[in-house]
Amino acid sequence: MIDLDLLRRELSETATEVGTVDLRERALATSHRIRIRRTAATTVAGLAVVALALGTAVAIRDDRSPAPPAVTPSPTLLPTEPPDSQPDLGPFESGTITVPSWGSVPIADCSAGRMTLRNGQEPDDVHRPVNIRSYIVVDVDQDGTEDYVAHMTCGEGPEAGGSQVVAFRLDGKELRPIGRIVGTQDGFGMMDYLEVRDGGRVAVLVAKEYTDGGEDSVPNQWRTYAWRQGKFQQVDGPTTFPAKPPAARLSIVPSTLAFRPAGKGFSGQMTVTVRNDGDIDVARLEFKLILPGQVQPAGGDWAGCTVPAESDPDDDATVLVCAVAGPRARSQVSIPYTFVATEKPVPVEDEIGLSNHYVQTRQLPPFGGQVLINDFDAEIPISLP
Could you tell me which of 30, 73, 94, 163 has the fewest CB atoms within 10 Å of its CB? Predict the structure, then answer.
């Protein structure tokens, strides 16, 4: 049988040994441990996400194709200008011809009369040679048969006996004169160009004075002649030169040819501006562009341009020839050009001669009045990166 008093005493002693338990402190400690575990788990999960994103980014970057290399513009291939050839002198190339007097006053050292031409020239050990410069075909006497009008000179240059324009008819293989049209003995310094006009008429560009620089650089006029009553008479055009003849006054201004890197080479643009401060229009001009040998044309701005046939590939220069429309009176024109270079261009500065970066300018036919150019050789400035 259980002793109840003994049992009570033992339980009372056990209760006395057990301390008071603080449940709040225990709860706080437990909560703190839970937060630590959650923070650790969140950090690990975040790192996993970052690692995954980085891995994806790396994978994307690895899968991307490499950027294509920058492309150097290709040069534009221009046609080659045909080489200069001797003018076609037709029936005046060789054969027998009768040359009329060179004017009202005979010139002792200029041949006249019947002679034989070889290569458009009458060789003579005593007199100055007669040279056929050019000719046109026109029915001057309106008889239904073509006639031949020749520009001929006696000797060369201002010291020569002169020049004249004569109409001939072909009789078998011999050229016989119809008549003398005009010559330098009629009060002109030079005459270099002929044109056919309606009704069998002949137009001659006559100049007041002689120059080695070309007839267009001095006062000049077109005068028209026709066969009337057995001789040639002037029927159109001015009959005198004014005291102050009108002229075109051209200024040639090239812009800077500015190069910039392009692929493994360089590309650049420039503009040539022609200003006409004069009183007459200029129909056509020719630019000769001289540039460093590393420079080549590019793009599509090269209509009317050629490479001269005489260009020497051993010369350290690129030469391009362009025919362009000229400016009207009191106006200007600007022509853009684009270039490319596989190597950095090397401009040459020559204080004595010409550099390798300039533009030459001259007038092209049709002519019609004096054309003055301020600088036939205008320097092209070049800038490099």
Answer: 30
